[in-house]
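Running this now, will post back.
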Amino acid sequence: MKQKVTILLLLLSFCTSLNVFGQENFKETALVKNIVSALQNQDSKLVMESLPTKDDILYIIPMVKAGRPNERVPEVDNILTNFKTEASKDFKEILRKGTSFGVEWENITLQNVRYEPHNDEKIAIKKGHIILICNSNDIAFEIILRQSIRIKDKWTLMDRMKFRLL
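Update: finished.
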């Protein structure tokens, strides 16, 4: 009986430590730091640093083609231009919405970061929504970095950003 309890405790502690060590500290990622700094300084150039590079896109394209052979993949330069245009529009919209609700961007604090995985079984890459939970002047809100992707151990912004009051 004592041996069964010991084995059970060992299994439980192993599973717990595996879960704890397997989780990433998103607050410390360059993506989260860049976005928070961009919001505080209202500087879209910092958001552009969080977008994928040409090398990142070239790294992903073979995975997309392997997972979805019938999908047409645009030219790399078109992809990058589209990302920059959309990220700039999204950033301006976030600033506009937040300001209309009384957010003082220079005073925002990052309270927490959540990650919601949205992996695609056809493409072997880690992706999901990274949600920044922030506040400013007693106004709680989220900035959602949709479909962020981990490329070569670095998180990049690959889709839209959204502002949502809590």
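The longest helix spans residues 76-100. More later if anyone needs it.
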